[in-house]
Amino acid sequence: MRILIIEDNRDIAANLGDYLSDRGHEVDYAYDGITGLHLAVSNEFDALVLDLALPGLDGLEVCRKLREEGRKETPVLMLTARDQLDDKLAGFDSGADDYLVKPFELKEVEARLVVLARRGQRVALRELNVDDLHFNLETLTVSRAGKQINLNPIGLKLLEKLMSASPAVVSRAELEHHVWGEELPDSDSLRVHIHSLRAAIDKPFDKSLLKTRHGIGYSLVDPDAVPA
Length: 228
Hints:
By secondary structure, this protein is of the alpha/beta class. It has helices at about 10-20, 35-40, 60-70, 85-95, 105-125, 155-165, 170-180, 190-200; strands spanning about 1-5, 25-30, 45-50, 75-80, 100, 125-130, 135, 140-145, 145-150, 170, 210-215, 215-220. Helix 2 packs parallel to helix 3 (about 60-70), helix 3 packs parallel to helix 4 and helix 6 (about 155-165) packs across helix 8 (about 190-200).
């Protein structure tokens, strides 16, 4: 798993991070709320460990902004010294998935993170979301702002790749391989299908989500999200 630890106590962060790294997990760190939110929004993690009392932004605000502005569903395990029921309820209300009171056993933290990551993978497989654009991968239905959008099979494949990678740029070569495999089409085919996709998901709406990076590729980006 790739795990982000957002914890201002560097001893606690190092102790937990060393344990998780020794168990084969990839660990990144942030020691304040603003940096933690930036990393959580601009990268893909399997789970977050989030302290409640943080400088800059507290854990509740980080979690709330992650869900509401960053549009991220990354599972969050909140760690805190506060053990009152109201504190736990506030954590869940902000969007946390689980809550663990300090002091904690390192083995329990890992076990909870594994469960949360598996749960997050199951959710991610069902639906992709970028701003008000939604793609249900089980029913292959696409909608934006509540309006259903009909796409052909190639449009669906392109959209899945772009939404899965959002907000990152996907190269032309990646998109062509995802859609056509080794039997690549003529040079204009991708451009034509991207044009059709943009006409379907952007043209009828106020905000444009599909961006062209000339000479590189394409990306789906919520212009109102927390900047990467």
